[in-house]
Design goal:
Layout (H helix, E strand, L loop, with lengths): L2 E5 L4 H12 L4 E5 L13 E4 L5 H10 L2 E6 L6 H6 L1 H22 L3 E7 L22 H20 L2 E7 L1 E3 L17 H9 L6 E4 L11 E2 L1 E3 H16 L5 E5 L5 E2 H12 L5 E4 L8 E2 L4 H7 L8 H15 L3
Parallel strand pairs: 1-2, 1-4, 2-3, 4-5, 5-6, 6-11, 7-10, 8-13, 9-14
Antiparallel strand pairs: 9-12
Helix pairs in contact: 1-7, 2-4, 4-5, 6-8, 6-10, 8-10
Bound molecules: uridine-5'-diphosphate (UDP).
Length: 326
């Protein structure tokens, strides 16, 4: 059995997935340039430090390791930033993925699990989103993921590349054993920012938009525990290795929580004051992204184990206190 290459494996979802795959006795190679990844998240498998921009490096990695399959996380992920700096997003997320896919093809590696996003759906036309919901990306970030989905499917048709495209809803929480967790620099995500406010690292949390057509006017999101996402990657790899068809899978719990509800829940979990400010809408945000993940359950046998948003916030809280020594 060959190895599993994890690009972006020193990042948030990538490191949790490295832990999950290692616990299943897979030989893991993490590839990361450590621009946003963390050296202390490299706890499982071998490590290759380098950039997907560097095609010679990629060729060398595939030459030196016997790789059977790839899980591709490495990407820029901030919606707001992508609106300001689309070039950065298209070059890193699209062009560098083309480099990776090319190196895979040259090395005869035919299976990939790709990190996509619920942001490809854009404006929801139904209360929950299934994989066949129309796509209308609202930001360069979402477009970059949408474009790569298309490339992967075209390579599948023409070259036989087998793929599982995973559309994550809002990844949140942390490893229950607190080996790894969420640490972005700068932090832009809701739950970590709320917990920073609870810890006094920032004065308040800003709510981006209170005039959306949602029950309390703030955006609805479907928060999914990062270890449940990690397990879905393991199941998707098994699915492809077992001869399963290429497919697209939503990964979420199917429950929408508003920004205000998440803040209230964090107040309960932490027992801290969390000062709130209201602010303008953030460019590129969808009003509501709530999944139907029935297909992942049916085809992959996926069952989220930490579906309770309170538990998601609790694991994040434990991690943040450890990581920030508070
Ligand atoms: N959000 C917010 N204040 C913040 C960060 C995020 O109100 O400081 C909102 C954001 O507008 C979105 C939700 O929280 O509706 C989740 O945002 P996040 O950046 O965590 O994830 P995204 O949905 O962009 O993937």
């Amino acid at each position: 059995m060959g190895k599993t290459l994890i690009t972006g494996g020193a990042g948030y979802i990538g490191s949790h997935t490295a832990k999950e795959l290692a616990s299943r006795d897979k030989d893991v190679v993490v590839l990361d340039n450590l621009s946003y990844g963390h050296r202390d998240f490299l706890q499982w498998g071998e490590f290759e430090e380098g950039d997907l921009e560097d095609r010679a490096f990629l060729k060398d990695v595939f030459a030196r390791h016997s790789i059977d399959e790839v899980v591709h996380f490495a990407a820029f992920i901030a919606v707001g930033e992508s609106v300001e700096k689309p070039r950065m997003y298209y070059e890193n997320n699209v062009r560098n993925t083309l480099n990776l896919l090319g190196a895979m093809q040259d090395a005869g590696v035919g299976r990939i699990v790709f990190s996509s996003t619920a942001a490809v759906y854009g404006e929801p036309q139904t209360p929950t989103l299934a994989e066949d919901h129309p796509l209308s990306p609202l930001s360069p970030y979402a477009w970059s993921k949408r474009m790569v989905e298309q490339v992967i499917r075209d390579y599948g048709k023409a070259y036989g590349l087998k793929s599982a495209i995973l559309r994550y809803f809002n990844a949140a929480g942390a490893d229950p054993e607190t080996d790894v967790g969420e640490r972005h620099q700068p932090e832009t995500h809701l739950i970590p920012l709320i917990l920073h406010a609870a810890l006094g690292i920032r004065d308040s949390i800003k709510i981006f938009g209170t005039d959306y057509a949602t029950p309390d006017g703030t955006c609805l999101r479907d928060y999914i525990h990062v270890t449940d996402l990690a397990e879905a990657h393991a199941l998707a790899l098994d699915h492809l290795a077992g001869g399963g068809d290429s497919d697209i899978f939503n990964l979420g719990n199917g429950n929408g929580f508003s920004v205000r509800e998440v803040i209230d829940m964090a107040r309960e979990v932490t027992g801290r004051e969390i000062p709130v400010e209201t602010a303008e809408r953030r460019a590129g945000d969808s009003p509501a992204l709530v999944s139907s993940s029935e297909k992942a359950r049916r085809v992959l046998g996926w069952r989220p184990r930490h579906a309770d948003v309170r538990e998601i916030i609790e694991t994040a809280w434990r991690w943040h206190r450890k990581d920030l020594k508070r």
